[in-house]
Amino acid sequence: MKTAYIINPFSAKKNYKSFLTALESRVENPLVLVSKSIEDSFDFIKQNWNDVDVFVAIGGDGTISTVASKLVNSDKILAVFPAGSGNGFSNETNFSKNIDSLLTKLKKKDFKLVDSFSVNGNLSINVSGVGLDGNIIEGFEHSERGFSSYIKITVEKYFKFKPIQVKFEEKYKQFDGEYMMVNVANSRQFGNNAYIAPQADMSDGKVEIALVKKFPLPAGLSFAYRMFTKSLKPGKYLQYISASEISFTVDSEAWHLDGEYHKIKSPVEIKVLPKSLRILV
User: Fold this and answer.
1) How high does pLDDT run on average in the chain?
2) What is the pTM of this model?
3) Could you tell me the CA-to-CA distances from 78 to 125, 153, 219 in Å, in that order?
4) Of 130, 133, 178, 131, which Cα lies nearest the Cα of 154?
5) CA–CA distances in Å: residue 126 to residues 68, 79, 93, 262
6) Distance CA 202, CA 113 (A)
7) Among 60, 211, 52, which Cα is nearest to 126's?
8) For residue 14, is pLDDT > 70?
9) In angstroms, rounded to a whole number, what is the distance separating the alpha carbons of residues 219 and 214?
10) Helical H segments across the chain, by residue range
């Protein structure tokens, strides 16, 4: 089983050199790309497609999603060395910052199939959303990475944010309304062990749509506590829709896909791609 390693030096800037040093001390002549851009990563995957069985993404959820977008519905296997700010997908798929653990998994060659989903044709593997979190990610991209920076931007955006208007297809019309954010969750967490959809299952053929209404600050503290303790439940400020396909309109184009900012126009179509991605285990 031949392995290729794709490093995003921007998201992994504090970690990638030590990873590379450790890798080169354990693996003879590893096939490595320190990527300059998304296109650079895509070219590398294309050039090595016929010879490589496993592609290892070194970075955050956005890096992983970029690599995964070329591996879906193929016999290639995705592996991860988490080096981002949130690492939600790697947390949910049991990848750690232990290179020896990764190399042991690579020797065993075992994999499992998980779902992915698309937002107007754009791939997502973890959690994507529109509303407050889309605005937060837009601000986050122009600031220092890190959890403390994320919290600071969240607080700043929260007080300025006006709810978004969402209208669903006829089947889900009862959920029309104003929301602070709409999250599409393939896995349970954003990252940093913040669980927006504790009931989500990456292999059930569905996503969980978390509809979050704007809440007063005291309720927000309770919401945050429940999010970090995996105990969020439907209530006054939170509803869930479980679906394999769903469409809606929203008066905002500020989305994030796996933690990366995107502008996406309405109407929005969400489609699950069941068991479309092979993950190393």
Assistant:
1) 92
2) 0.91
3) 12, 32, 39
4) 133
5) 11, 14, 10, 15
6) 9
7) 60
8) no
9) 9
10) 16-26, 38-48, 61-68, 88-92, 99-108, 132-140, 147-160, 217-228
